[in-house]
Amino acid sequence: MNPFETSGLGFGPANFTPLTPVAFLPRTAAVHPDRVAVIHGDRRITYRDFYARARRLASALTARGIGAGDTVSVMLPNVPAMLDAHYGVPMAGAILNTINTRLDARTIAYILGHGEAKALITDREFAAVVGPALEQLGRKLLVIDVDDPLYDGPGGGTLGEIEYEAFLAEGSPDFEWRPPRDESQAIALNYTSGTTGNPKGVVYHHRGTFLVAVGNVLAWDLPPRAVYLWTLPLFHCNGWCYSWAVTLVGGTHVCLRKVDPALVFRLIAEHRVTNMCGAPTVLSILINAPAEQKARFDHVVDIQTGGASPPAKVIKAMSDMGFRVMHLYGLTEVHGPSTCCEWQEAWDALPADEVATHMARQGVRNAVVAGQIVADPKTHTPVPADGKTIGEVLLRGNTVMLGYLKEPDATEAAFRGGWFHTGDLAVEHPDGYMEIKDRAKDIIISGGENISSIDVEIVLNRHPAVQMAAVVARPDEKWGETPCAFVQLRPGAEATPEEIIEYCRDNLPHFAAPRTVVFGPLPTTATGKIQKYALREQARAL
């Protein structure tokens, strides 16, 4: 008989507590009560006060009848109320729904209706779009206005029955919150960017957010007392779960309403910022900021970026300004980051160009991710690790979402074969590092040849006149599809379509070179991702 299978062993109250990232705040508040948790302009909030504010929010929501299983939506920039909500809403047992602040009224109304929001906390900056959304919703809900003194833009009306700070005053700082009964309970609802139709509601769980937050600390070696600047929208995958990770290490959250390069550089120097995140467009904004806005600082700032691989010239330009870039990969459906380009000591001796090539890959799975393979999407058989054979990125483990809200068929399709199907196409290199080649829908098939739009974008981004580039398929009677390049030039730079095409032909197989080049600013989402669906529409209309 196996002695370890006796009835006296097992989980109980003494050796099991459901995991939740909400628990990071009371722990840090107890250990470092007087440490500054949040900076917003001239305002300083200690961890003691941060915890009290979260408990007040939970208490006030509970008093209004909002609790277990209810959705609380927020339409906020990166301000203290947004950080409060990441703790106070789940403390009340409710589910936090952070809404993309660049959405239109129709989509906001859809999200509020689909998620069955019982309350909305909204910044007055967004009154002009939230007001019509509430009218379209056609039902009443508790609306709470955030009147941030740092907002100095146009309009800025109020829509609700109470202002946020007054609402907090209704609650008790001693509210006795409890962790979830089950760590698989929902903690957050995040809507994907809908390229066609309505966005999907991705449901996060307490266990997953806890583990991704811990994984972020491990993957980045996030230091105790980190000073984290919020250049990444907190509505995007709950700030890639750094909303909880920074609190875990007792760090300081430096709020930022919008990415203004002059303000970003000033805050880095003033607060000695150690860490920040952002899409490749954030890196581009910083690199191309006027010289007079680039305040100097005498320390290294670690910055994580996801999305398109940063070109070598971007990595070098960021390094010259004092930043150390780490590339990562993830999706809304896996709570944000799942893969990072972990540094290898052998790279120390490599030339700069080779280092940039290694760093541009998405990398290896984070420690908290159970499984990652590049495989045939039908058989789930891993492709050869030869850096050439393309397969779909499949993920599994505790960091995968619960599923899509009210869409069981879509959830089942995403989880087929016991893996989460990302829809991203990649290769695996002999050293085990993954490199994304395209979204499945972005592969261009021209005359029977498969063309990776990302491979073409990498070459375009090497051109000295190019600031950003995106490539999509343009319908063609002869070839079926041909690559169409949309190019945003650097300020003051000049180039012709013929020059860009010839440059690509010199650096790519001729069939992969763009046949069409369109110059102009590229449309991006609030998280800095290029809106390829909009470019596809433009390409079809050419």
Explain the overall architecture:
There is one protein chain. This protein is of the alpha/beta class. It has three domains: 37-178, Rossmann fold; 217-440, Rossmann fold, CATH 3.40.50.12780; 444-541, GMP Synthetase, Chain A, domain 3 (2-Layer Sandwich). The protein is 31% helix and 24% strand. It is built from 17 helices and 26 strands. The strands form six sheets. Strands 2-1-11-10-12-13-14-15-16 form a nine-stranded mixed beta sheet, sandwiched between helices. β14 and β15 form a beta hairpin. α1 crosses α2 (47-63) and α4 crosses α5. The protein starts with 23 loop residues before the first helix and ends with a helix. The mean pLDDT is 92.
Name of the CATH superfamily of the largest domain: ANL, N-terminal domain
CATH architecture label of the largest domain: 3-Layer(aba) Sandwich
The strands making up the biggest β-sheet line up spatially as 2-1-11-10-12-13-14-15-16
> What does the overall shape look like?
globular
Helix content: 25-40%
SS element count, helices: 17
Main pleated-sheet profile: 9 strands, mixed
Could you say how many structural domains there are in total?
Answer: 3
Uncertain spans: none
Q: Which band does the percent of strand residues land in?
A: 15-25%
Q: What would CATH call the class of the largest domain?
A: Alpha Beta
State the distance separating the first and last CA atoms.
75 Å
Overall average residue pLDDT: 92
